[in-house]
Amino acid sequence: EHLLFKATPEENAHAHRVTMEEVLDSAAEKLSHDPAFRQEPEITATLRLAIGTTYYKMGRLTEAEYHLRDAWNLRRNTLGARHVDTCIAQARLAECLVVGLRRFEEGEPLALEAWRELEMQLGRKHPQTVEAFYAYFGAVTIPGMRITEAERLGRELLVLRETVNGPDDYRTTDMLGNLAFILAVQGKYAE
C-alpha cells in the first residue's frame, strides 16, 4: 500500500508523475532489502510472483526470472513441491525461461512437471493448468525440432484455449496462429 501511495497526487506533484514501472522497481527494491519480508515467506512469495509476472509482461526478463525463481523457491520450501501455489510459480518461471529467455533445456522439465501436477490437482480445463500447458508447448515448439509433437500439443491446446478462454480471447487467437505456423512449416497449407 505504501508503495502504491507514491503514485498518488498527495505524494507527488502533478509535474512529477510516477510511473507504474517506477512503483514496481521501488516495490522490488523494498522486497529485496527489507528483512521483515523474509519472516513472511508466503507473503514474500506472493509479492515476488506478482512482481516477476509483471516484469515478464513488460519484457524485463532478467528481473522477471529473479523474482519468479525466488517465488518458486520460497513456495517449495514453505508449502512443498507439489502444492498448487508452488506449481503455479513453477509454471510462470518455466514460461519466462522458455518463451522469454529461450532457455529450453532448463524450462522444459519445469513446465512439464508443473503442467502435469496442476492437471492432476486442478483438472485439465483449469486456467492455471492451461497456462502451464502453454509453457510446455513453447518448450516443445520454439526450438523447432519436434514438429509432430508440437502439432499434436498445439491442437490440444487450441481446443483448451477455446473452451477455457473463449474463441475471441487473444490467447486463443495467438494459439491459432501458433498452430497455423506449425502446419505451414510442414506444408499443410490446406489446414
Q: Could you give the topology of this structure?
A:
Blueprint: H1 2-5, H2 20-33, H3 35-38, H4 41-58, H5 61-79, H6 84-100, H7 104-122, H8 127-141, H9 147-164, H10 170-185
Helix pairs in contact: 2-4, 4-5, 5-6, 6-7, 6-8, 7-8, 8-9, 9-10
Quick take:
The chain has 191 residues and is mainly alpha-helical. It has helices at 2-5, 20-33, 35-38, 41-58, 61-79, 84-100, 104-122, 127-141, 147-164, 170-185.
Strand content: under 5%
Structural class: mainly alpha
Indicate the overall shape. Answer: globular
Provide the helix percentage: over 70%
Compute the gyration radius: what is it?
A: 19 Å
Mean pLDDT: 90
Query: Count of helical segments?
Result: 10
Strand count, sense and barrel status of the largest sheet are: none
Please give the number of β-strands.
Answer: 0
Run of helices and strands: HHHHHHHHHH
How far the N terminus sits from the C terminus, by CA atoms, comes to 51 Å
Report the uncertain regions.
3-7
Your description of this structure?
By secondary structure, this protein is mostly helical. The longest helix has 19 residues. It is globular and about 60 Å long. The N terminus is likely disordered.
Features:
191 residues; mainly alpha; disordered N terminus
